[in-house]
Design goal:
Rossmann fold, alpha/beta, 18 helices, 506 residues, 40% helix, five-stranded parallel beta sheet, disordered N terminus, globular, Helicase, Ruva Protein, domain 3
C-alpha cells in the first residue's frame, strides 16, 4: 500500500485488561495512531455498525471467555475486509486455531511483547489498504472432504446449509438437483459430514460414465467364478458400510440396475453378481443427483417411477452460481489460494475491474467454469484466462477494464492466420470452430511450456485426462522443439521424448 497518512490510522482494541491496554496505548502514542478501546465485543460491534470502521481491530479473548469467538464470527460477517488480530493466552492453542479458521489474520499471546506486537500491527495496517489479497479463511468456506468445500456467503446458500443440517439428522434418501458444476457433490458431502455417518466412508458413483456391466460391478461388486481362479470383490455399497453413497446422474442408470437399487432401498439387500451368488446386506445411505429434469425421464421410461419416489423422499435444488453472485469474490480468492499452493506458483491478485467483470458474467459452467478461469488466470493472467481469446475492453485506454465476453479475434501465433478472420467462402460455423481450436491450442501450448513439456503435469493443469492431452498434442502436431509456440521465450524444453527434464513425475 501506499503508506497511510499517519494521523488517519485507527486501531480499535476490544479489552478490559490493563495489561493489554497499557502497552498498546504506549505503542499508539509513539506511532501517532488513533487508538480507541471497547470494553466488550458487543460494544465493538456497535461501533463497527455505526460506520466508524477502524483500520485494524485487536480482539482480546481471555481464558474462560465464551463470547469472544462468537463476536469474531459476527465481525467477519459485518466487515469481511477488516483485519482482526486475536490476543490469547499462550496455553489456549485450540482457541487460537479456531480463531484463525474463523477469519482472524493472526494471534498475539500474553504478555504482549512490544517489538513483535508493533511489527505485526504495522504489517496488517500496511496490508489493509494495499493490493495484498485477503486469504479466505472465513467460516463461510467450510471444508467437506477431498478438496471439496461449501461456501455459505449468500442467503440462498445459508438456507441450503440449514436444509442439509436438517436432513443430516435423519437417514432418508435425498435427491439433489442442479445444473452441471453447481455443487451437487458438495451438497451431498455436506449432508454426509453433518450426519452420524461422517466417521465412515463416502463414495460417488458417476452412473453416466460407466457401461452397464461395469456400473453393476462398481455398485454391487462381483462374485467368485466357478473355477475359483478369480477372487470376489465388494462394490461401493459394501465398501461404504455405515457410510454414504452418491449416485450421480441417476437417469443414466440402466433399468435392470434400477430394479436392483429398488431392492436395496426397500430391503437393504441385493444379490452380488457372479456364478457363486451371495446376498450381502447393505447399511448405507443413498443420495442421488441429476442435472436433468426428472419428469421427462420418468415419462420416457429412463427412470423407474418407484425408484424415483424412493430416492426423492426429500429434494434439494442447488442454485446456479449466477443466483449467488455474492460468493464470486470469495470463490475466486479461495480457488486462487488453493491452486497457487497446489501448483507451487505465486498467486495473482484480482484487480477491481476483473472482480467486476466476474460479477457480471453469467458463469454457465458454474463452479467448474470459475475454477478453470482461475487456473488459466494463475497460469497466464488475463491473456490466457479465456483459453486464449482476448478480453473485450470497454475502454481501449484502460488495460485493466475488462469484460468476460470474448470477441471473435483471438490472440494469434506467428505464422498463423487469425482464427476469426473471414476468408472466401468461410461459414460462421467454421469461423467459430477455428476460434475454439486456436484457443484450445494456445491453452495447451502455455500449459506445456509452463510444465517444461511434462505432459502428465500439463494434463493436471488443464484438468483433462492424460490420454486426451496426448490426442490433442498429436492432433495439433505440437512438438517440444517448436519454439514458435512461444517466440522470444526460453522456457524449459523437453528431453526428446516429450517430457520435461525437471517438471516432476511424468
Amino acid at each position: 500500500m501506499a503508506e497511510k497518512a499517519i494521523e488517519t490510522v485507527r486501531l480499535l482494541v476490544v479489552s478490559r485488561e490493563s495489561s493489554v491496554l497499557r502497552p498498546l496505548w504506549s505503542m499508539g502514542e509513539s506511532n501517532s495512531w488513533q487508538l480507541e478501546s471497547a470494553a466488550s465485543g458487543w460494544g465493538a460491534m456497535e461501533r463497527v455498525q455505526s460506520g466508524a470502521t477502524p483500520d485494524l481491530l485487536l480482539l482480546d479473548v481471555p481464558r474462560g471467555d465464551t463470547d469472544g469467538l462468537h463476536i469474531l464470527r459476527w465481525l467477519r460477517r459485518l466487515r469481511p475486509e477488516l483485519p482482526i488480530i486475536l490476543i490469547c493466552d499462550p496455553e489456549d492453542a485450540a482457541k487460537q486455531q479456531e480463531g484463525l479458521r474463523l477469519g482472524a489474520r493472526d494471534c498475539l499471546v500474553r504478555p504482549l511483547e512490544g517489538r513483535r506486537c508493533e511489527s505485526m500491527v504495522k504489517r496488517y495496517l500496511s496490508a489493509a489498504g494495499g493490493a495484498v489479497e485477503m486469504e479466505i479463511t472465513s467460516e463461510d468456506v467450510e471444508p467437506v472432504g477431498e478438496d471439496t468445500f461449501f461456501v455459505g456467503a449468500s442467503p440462498i446458500m445459508r438456507k441450503l446449509r440449514a436444509q442439509a443440517e436438517l436432513l443430516a439428522a435423519t437417514d432418508v434418501p435425498v435427491l439433489i438437483l442442479g445444473e452441471s458444476g453447481s455443487g451437487k457433490e458438495m451438497t451431498a458431502r455436506l449432508i454426509h459430514k453433518l450426519s452420524v455417518r461422517s466417521g465412515f466412508g463416502f463414495a460417488k458413483v458417476n452412473c453416466a460414465a460407466l457401461p452397464s456391466d461395469l456400473l453393476e460391478a462398481e455398485l454391487f461388486g462381483y462374485g467368485q467364478s466357478e473355477t475359483g481362479l478369480s477372487r470376489s470383490a465388494p462394490g461401493k455399497l459394501e465398501l461404504c458400510e455405515k457410510g454414504t453413497v452418491l449416485l450421480d446422474e441417476i437417469t443414466e442408470i440402466p433399468l435392470m440396475l434400477q430394479a436392483r437399487l429398488v431392492q436395496v432401498l426397500q430391503h437393504k439387500r441385493s444379490t452380488r453378481p457372479g456364478p457363486r451368488k451371495s446376498s450381502p446386506e447393505f447399511n448405507v445411505r443413498l443420495l442421488a443427483a441429476s442435472t436433468t429434469n426428472i419428469e421427462p425421464a420418468i415419462t420416457e421410461n429412463k427412470l423407474r417411477e418407484d425408484l424415483y419416489y424412493l430416492l426423492s423422499a426429500y429434494t434439494i435444488h442447488v442454485p446456479p452460481l449466477r443466483q449467488r453472485r455474492e460468493e464470486i469474490p470469495i470463490l475466486l480468492r479461495h480457488f486462487m489460494h488453493r491452486l497457487a499452493k497446489y501448483y507451487g506458483l505465486s498467486h495473482r491478485s484480482f484487480s477491481p475491474a476483473v472482480l467486476n467483470a466476474c460479477q457480471s458474467h453469467s458463469w454457465p459452467g458454474n463452479l467448474r467454469e470459475l475454477e478453470s478461469f482461475v487456473k488459466r488466470y494463475l497460469l497466464g493472467g488475463k491473456e490466457l484466462a479465456l483459453g486464449g481469446s482476448t478480453w473485450k475492453s470497454e475502454d481501449a485506454h484502460e488495460d485493466d477494464d475488462l469484460s468476460l465476453t470474448p470477441v471473435l479475434m483471438p490472440t494469434t501465433l506467428p505464422g498463423h492466420q487469425a482464427a476469426g478472420s473471414v476468408s472466401g467462402g468461410s461459414s460462421l460455423k467454421s469461423m467459430v470452430q477455428n476460434v475454439k481450436s486456436e484457443a484450445e491450442k494456445n491453452a495447451i501450448a502455455a500449459a506445456l511450456e509452463r510444465t517444461g513439456w511434462n505432459r502428465k503435469a500439463a494434463a493436471r493443469l488443464l484438468k483433462v485426462s492424460y490420454r486426451t492431452l496426448l490426442y490433442k498434442i498429436e492432433h495439433y502436431q505440437m512438438r517440444s522443439s517448436d519454439s514458435s509456440l512461444f517466440p522470444g521465450r526460453n522456457g524449459s524444453k523437453g528431453n526428446g521424448n516429450g517430457f520435461g527434464g525437471n517438471g516432476g513425475p511424468g
